[in-house]
Amino acid sequence: MSTNKMTSEVMEYVVWVIEIAAREFFNGDKTITYDVLKNSNLWDLYTEHYETTHTLGSEYILNEIREYFVKNEVKFSC
């Protein structure tokens, strides 16, 4: 989903995902988190499948992100 077609509801959700992931993996750095998520398959997962993924809890999402990072050897600081 391109940013210009993103609804405010999806945008708020993605901001929340960035915030929780930043705290968990990048010492609170939202810029790095945005870049990593935007350049991965996770961005599309959370935007294109918003109707499903927004119902998941933060622990589930963080575990999913952690698994993706480990599997794809994405370096994170926490």
Describe the overall structure.
- This protein is mainly alpha-helical and 78 residues long.
- Helices cover 68% and strands 0% of the residues.
- It contains 5 helices and no strands.
- The termini are far apart.
> Number of helix segments?
5
- The percentage of residues in β strands lies in under 5%
Low-confidence stretches: none
Order of helices and strands: HHHHH
Largest sheet data: none
Fraction of residues in H or I helices: 55-70%
Count all strands and give the number.
0
- Terminal Cα span: 29 Å
Concise overview:
With 78 residues, the chain is an all-alpha fold. 68% of the residues lie in helices and 0% in strands.
